[in-house]
Design goal:
By secondary structure, this protein is an all-alpha fold. It has 2 domains: 3-68; 78-225, no CATH class. The chain has helices spanning 3-39, 41-49, 54-68, 78-93, 99-116, 125-135, 140-155, 164-181, 190-197, 201-225. The longest helix has 37 residues, at 3-39. The radius of gyration is 24 Å and the shape is elongated. Residues 183-214 are annotated as: Disordered. This is Secreted protein. Residues 205-214 have a biased composition (Basic and acidic residues).
Length: 232
């Protein structure tokens, strides 16, 4: 074999290795971007939970997608949705008198609604949260927060649980995931939902108005309670 032939083979091998390296790098970068886009803030939270180890965090997230990415959510019946919204609004309204009970109810509601939509049952909390993070990444941490505060209130001795401000912040943070889970569009879109349930646009407006009234009252209570000492 001549020197020229050997040189050409070496050059060809170098080119092939360079192409493979570029492909692998592109695939890894694409995977990172895809995970960041899918999980939103949950991506950075997962990296932090893995002490900054991006590769380990991405393995964690990719495993969640593998386990739960094919999950198809179930739509809520109109009556069930209205019942969940009424219960949430009631929990918000009673927050001033009983913040611990309000937070505990919000925690229960999120578990119930998630299960009703087709996510793992709330008895398997960690698996339920993992599945929710795949489909509701930007808001799933609100569930973690309200669950953590609710559990702290249950397990802590009298007077040593979370303070009122912490419970209020947790409840507000969890609302975004609740709104996602009770959204009327499901897999069909708002217009199809109205056609399927026979509800008119006016009925939908009334439902949204009732929900907004609950939120507005809660924010009003927030302002009122800021002038009172924290409870624990």
């Amino acid at each position: 074999m001549s020197g020229t032939t050997i040189a050409l083979i070496v050059i060809a091998v170098v080119i092939v290795l360079a192409v493979i390296g570029a492909f692998v790098a592109s695939a890894v970068l694409g995977s990172s971007r895809g995970l960041k886009r899918r999980f939103g803030p949950e991506y950075e939270r997962t990296v932090a939970r893995h002490d900054g180890d991006t590769k380990e965090a991405e393995r964690d997230l990719a495993d969640r997608v593998k386990r739960h990415g094919s999950l198809r959510t179930r739509p809520l019946e109109a009556a069930a949705r209205d019942g969940y919204v009424s219960r949430w609004n009631y929990a918000q309204e009673r927050f001033v008198d009983s913040p611990g009970d309000a937070v505990a109810e919000a925690d229960r509601l999120l578990a119930e609604v998630a299960a009703a939509r087709g996510f793992p049952d709330g008895v398997h909390y960690e698996e339920q949260v993992a599945a929710l993070s795949v489909h509701h990444g930007p808001h799933v941490d609100g569930y973690r927060r309200v669950h953590r505060v609710a559990q702290a209130g249950t397990a802590a001795p009298q007077g040593s649980g979370a303070g009122t401000e912490e419970m209020r912040a947790a409840l507000l943070d969890a609302r975004a995931l609740f709104d996602d889970l009770v959204a009327e569009d499901g897999a069909r879109g708002p217009r199809d939902h109205r056609r399927r349930t026979g509800r008119s646009g006016a009925a939908d407006d009334a439902s949204r108005s009732g929900q907004d009234h609950g939120v507005g009252r809660f924010h009003a209570l927030w302002g009122f309670n800021r002038h009172h000492p924290k409870r624990s």
